[in-house]
Amino acid sequence: MRSFDPTPLYRATIGFDRVADLLDRVMSNDIAQPTYPPYNIEKTGETAYRISIAVAGFSADELNVEVKENALHVSARKATDDEEGRTFLHRGIATRAFERRFHLADHVRVVGATHADGMLHIDLAREIPEALKPRRIEIAKTGAIPSSVDAQAA
Q1: Is cis: bond before 6, omega within 30 of 0?
Q2: Is the domain of 46 the same as that of 29?
Q3: Residue 62 near residue 76, CB atoms below 8 Å
Q4: CA 15, CA 4: separation in Å to the nearest integer?
Q5: For residue 137, is it within any domain?
Q6: Which of 12, 28, 88, 100 shows its CA 20 to 30 Å from the CA of 6?
Q7: Do residues 65 and 109 make contact, with C-beta atoms less than 8 angstroms apart?
Q8: Is the peptide bond before 37 cis (omega within 30 degrees of 0)?
Q9: How far apart are CA 91 and CA 24, in angstroms?
Q10: How many CA atoms does the CB half-sphere of 54 hold within 13 Å?
Q11: Residue 144: inside a domain
């Protein structure tokens, strides 16, 4: 069994509480992760992602997708029990209720969701704010005064 103690991170860093909490959560949840329903996470572009969840037997009205505090919550619950009076000889298609949670990084937002052919597709995009994007700084030539400094002197 693996264990990770984030206490040294709290003593030596400031503002990294979320990283330590994330590491702690990942290490503790690694053992008991549910496997239903199956899903894929794929990178569809430079800053685009897609989560595909197999939701056979559920209609779009029975599915719920919401984002709360950098976490994507996907849940499903059958509206009515339409199986009364039916006898199954084999039941391989599970339509039990579920709840899946995906933690999203900063600046990742849900673009949209579609439901088709028993699959729920959730599209995500990473949008980096202008303030965090790299920017080029112009280098002034020797002896030249930048225009902003020249305007202040006048």
Answers
A1: no
A2: no
A3: yes
A4: 19
A5: no
A6: 100
A7: no
A8: yes
A9: 38
A10: 9
A11: no
